[in-house]
Amino acid sequence: MLNYKFFIYERPCRLCVVKHKIDVTPDRSLIKKLGRIGYRTEQAIAELIDNSIDARLDGARVEIHVTLDFAKGAIAVSDDGTGMGLDDLRRAWVLGSSPPPSKPRLGMFGIGMKSACSALGRSFYTRTTVAGSPAELSATYDEDRWLGDGDWAGFEVDEGRVDADSHGTTVRVSRLNVALYRGQVATLRERFGARYARYMEAGQARIFVNNKICTPIGLDIDHDTKRHVDICLPGGNRMHGWIALLNRRSVKGDYGIDLYQNNRLITSYAKFGVRMHPSVSRVVGELSLDHVPVNVNKTGFLTDSPEYRDAVRAFSGDPATKSVIKMSEEIALEPQDYTQALEGNPTGALPRVGDPASRIMLRKLADSGPIGGLPFPIVLEDADSGVCRLVGSGDGTMIAVNQNSDVFRAFRNPIYFLRMLQLEARALSAHPEALALLPKWTSRWEQFVSGRSRGSGGRAGVRHRDTLPWDLDGLRGAIRRRFHGRFQFTALSILHPFLQNAYRIMTYTLHTTPGSGYLIDSIVSKTPGYTPLLNPVSGQVDTAHDTLDHGDLVIIRESAHVPKSTAATYSKAWVDFYAEVRDRCAGVYESEVDMLWELEGSSLVSLEEVMRIAKRRKFGTAIKKYVSEGHAAG
């Protein structure tokens, strides 16, 4: 007989709970720390201007004066707004306190004045008067005194007497943490002219910097391309604005969408639903995102918020956005003379690799019939085999190009293939018997391309020793003959063929071991067509581009680790190119970083290898952020 014993476990109960009260008054250093949240001088002053705009009298225009006192080292912002009474002044100094949202306001977190002033300097005061009152209230913060014996519960406010007709507020900052310089006045006038343009145009505000008025900064757009945007979002939210094309494309990245909240510019030229690419470098617009949260210093929207992501998705899919982007891609081709392009003398840059404009250009060529104005007009056709064939004879000879051939499809931008055929045909035109062999010679090319594709499972395989383009093989040979140490071509040395662009000057990069750079420099300088730059610092490459009349640049960098191979893999070449541009040594190529990232989609550049190399180079986090922000999406 089995005997069972049962045990009952009772959890001990708490017989009593003791409650304590603790003092959570902020540390006195909080105001100082708030000044370290990352303001630029312009952004900190803008916080004070925001408060002045919020304080404008109903139905009246507020006049705001920004003063940079170079002699005394101080910054002041004054307005003729409503001013503040004692309760309002107390609220202005309490951290995190803001008035009830009776109407849309630019100030929203209750820390703007304190954090902005603390960022600008170590001492500041507010002096304010309410309309119709003879009382002038003033409160002063001195960092050293406050850290010594400041009292949150006993902040001192002085009261004086002024003319009852005066009203408004002045905030003055001294013992500055930031530098003042003469050119700052012009810079601030331009920045504030853009940031507060809507308030100025509506007659709600006038802003002066050192008594010089700021004027609204607008965009030079083609008004025929302007499309209005008005989108209803889930949850009843709404965003509205417009999108259009600039009259002239921007080469500095000054394109994209200006994002506003409560009519105040938060982010300018945001790539908001617009990729970073030369084909859309005319696209600009304005969009109000009043429902999307911004960061605490109002320098940007919270891009990870659901509201922001929903807005991007809705805007990029809106018919108005799609139509303007399509116009930009097509208009980008208008200045290009197709005939001159095929003759090898383009009047402007041809579409780059991966650019939809190259396909648009090709479609226009196909739709236009035989391309005349050339020694040998070109016609595009669909055939079962062959690369090209000659049609007609004598002066009426045309080149019919098969769009279905492996060679034609191997070119990301087939315009260049057509140009090569045209140049070759012109070279052979003096010998009719040789010209007749052109189709046969191009068929050998097709056999090579087709065979290479079959040998790599349908995609042309690329071995490491194949990565150095043929046009640099002569320079590599010259270095090998006179230098017996390690060196490696990388960055655009490897990647420039994928740009497929008629650059006047190309910048190549070459890595070598420490102490060997001067030897490579000597060899390159004696090689015709190349100008060396040994270990250039920020700005030197851009300067060389502006001053060099002909030839190409070769950046020589000394590195502790140089692989044995004289040609980098495509992945390493992209990482090295990114590093050059990131450090602003080759800032002229900012857009090309994004274009060449498209190689990742064709498996030539491996994301895994890129991350491994970048991590070893100590900037893996920067690369990870670059990829996660969608630059690679193109």
Can you offer a commentary on this structure?
The protein folds into four domains: 30-213, 2-Layer Sandwich (Heat Shock Protein 90), CATH 3.30.565; 221-331, Ribosomal Protein S5, domain 2, CATH 3.30.230; 338-454, no CATH class; 465-633, no CATH class. The protein contains 23 helices and 20 strands. An eight-stranded mixed sheet has the order 5-4-3-6-2-1-7-8. Strands 9-10-13-11-12 form a five-stranded mixed sheet. It is α+β, with helices and mostly antiparallel strands. A hairpin with a 2-residue loop joins strand 7 and strand 8 (212-213). The chain is elongated and about 105 Å long.
Task: Offer a few descriptive terms.
alpha+beta, 8-stranded mixed beta sheet, 20 strands, elongated, Heat Shock Protein 90, 5-stranded mixed beta sheet, 634 residues, 34% helix, single chain, Ribosomal Protein S5, domain 2
Helix/strand layout:
Elements: H1 30-34, H2 41-54, E1 62-69, E2 74-79, H3 86-93, H4 112-120, E3 121-129, E4 135-142, H5 143-149, E5 158-161, E6 168-176, H6 184-195, H7 197-201, E7 205-209, E8 212-213, E9 221-232, E10 238-246, E11 256-261, E12 264-270, E13 283-288, H8 306-316, H9 319-331, H10 338-342, H11 356-367, E14 378-381, E15 388-391, E16 398-402, H12 406-410, H13 414-428, H14 432-435, H15 438-454, H16 473-482, E17 487-490, H17 492-499, E18 507-512, H18 517-525, E19 530-534, H19 540-547, E20 552-558, H20 570-582, H21 590-597, H22 607-616, H23 620-628
